Amino acid sequence: MALRWTDVQEIALELEDAHPDTDVVNLRFTDLHRWVRELPGFGDDPNKSNEKILEAIQMAWLAERT
Fold first, then answer.
1. Among 32, 40, 46, 61, which is disulfide-ready with 12 (CB 3.0 to 4.6 Å)?
2. Residues linked to residue 42 through DSSP beta bridges, in sequence order
3. 9-66 confidence digits (pLDDT tens)
4. Counting Cβ atoms within 10 Å, is residue 36 exposed (0-12), middle (13-18) or buried (19+)?
5. Considering the entire predicted model, what is its pTM?
6. Which CATH code of 1.50.40.10, 3.20.20.70, 1.10.10.600, 3.30.30.10 fits the domain covering 8-65?
7. Which of 20, 8, 10, 17 is nearest to 50 (CA)?
């Protein structure tokens, strides 16, 4: 089953694997949006994303680091 924008935790894990050296705190949402869309298992509509979702993904990704 394809990843959707609401799969915040799973996306965060995939992003950590794909971009382990990224400065997650200072990441631009435009880059984050692109990276999520580029994940191999991602299959949701790119237009269904918003700032709240991207922030949730960013915070989940940051939590993976701690």
1. 61
2. 3
3. 999 999 999 999 999 999 999 999 999 999 999 999 999 999 999 999 999 999 998 8
4. buried
5. 0.95
6. 1.10.10.600
7. 8
